[in-house]
Amino acid sequence: MANDFLADEGGSQNTVELSLYEVRRKIYPRSVSGVFAKWRLILVLATQILFYGLPWVQWNDRQAVLFDLVSRKFYIFGLVLWPQDIIYLTLLLILSALALFLFTAVAGRLFCGYACPQTVYTEIFMWIERKVEGDRFARIRLDGEDWPWSFHKWRIKITKHFLWILIALWTGFTFVGYFTPIKVLSAELIAFTLGPWQAFWLLFYSFATWGNAGFMREQVCKYMCPYARFQSVMVDKDTFVVTYDKTRGDPRGGRAKAANHKELGLGDCVDCSICVQVCPTGIDIRDGLQYMCIGCGACIDACDQVMDKVGYDKGLIRYTSERAMLEHMDNKKARHYIFRPRVLVYLGIMSVLLIAFASSVFLRNPLRVDVMRDRGALAREVEGTKIENVYRLQIMNSSENPMNVSIVATGLPGMQILSSQGKEINELIVNPSSNLLIPVKVRVAIEDVKAGTHPINFDIEATESGPNASKTLRVRDEKSSFIVPR
Question: Mean of the per-residue pLDDT values for the chain?
Fold first, then answer.
């Protein structure tokens, strides 16, 4: 604390204590209904059905979406990604960032208000809180009870936290189920045989959900989320954001419903403060756009209800742009400015990346081959008439079907490919979504080659076998070298 002495008009001094840190004021959002509340409900249901349900979806007798870190393979329906496919993850992250920039340029913090996990789980936890403790004023009264707590308060608080913890544990379990097959995870959980890392991440994510959605809530949006800090550089005067119409609403003030507020010199705002009471971050939108606003539209629904009751036009608080507000445009005319250069650039870049991503996935060859020379045995003479080089071939099958693979070496006359046991290799079988590492010997007759290093190619041809496979895949010109000692 610090003391600051300020002199007033009479010359006296008042001691004012200034806190170095802001003390959090607990927010009790009031329930609200309306168009935007319905959209929030729809998005909460959609995102949670997707999140909780997706791990249980099966595809080709396996989990449809599984990020198997142990095996270093990502399964996304029919797509199997290996560490070598990091470019796809990079493209997805770039597309996600551009989509966030695009949504922000068009409609502000649209993602924050409707689809952000912090917002979604806060909505779920607040819904439970309202069902157990009651609406705004009931919760304020309940929290205002001093110690010792009554049995009634203990029962309500324990019930609320019990339900919160159930949701949090279910969320943590589902999260881990994206990295460990969820059916295996379920069996291990029931048998109390979870591995240490599985148990750690289940409890950690559950605790994070319970703490963030139950206690921290708007603090995450206001202080921890970096998006709130840099959104201002992505919006402009044509971005649609939640806006209070000062020209129409001010000066604010209470009045009788039958009174003519124009004659009283008042604006349409009746200064009921319901827009503040419903705000999940506790801001007053009438003070202008603030970085704490998550664009959820709760204040719009609340204000429209008040306008209906007093008989005024809706839209005192609405989604609109700064240009529309200053030039008194309606939203239909303001939407003409949506497709401005910034938005078109975002759309153009996203379109190019999406086409490149889709084309790459569609044309992707699931057969991959790496050829590595055996460093321990560069070249040697065998049977007195042949020169032998040893290689290691890593053959990767990223499809969902087995592959019959044949290997041919070209570049020198009469080349033979043999297994490590000295048998000629005719055909190999590579299982679905797996790799095969095999040592091979390549032999050439001494009289057919000169001393030195000769470039050679391994031509690999693979045919998928299985009920849904008839395509022949080729990987040609896997280059290497054949050494003939002097």
Answer: 87
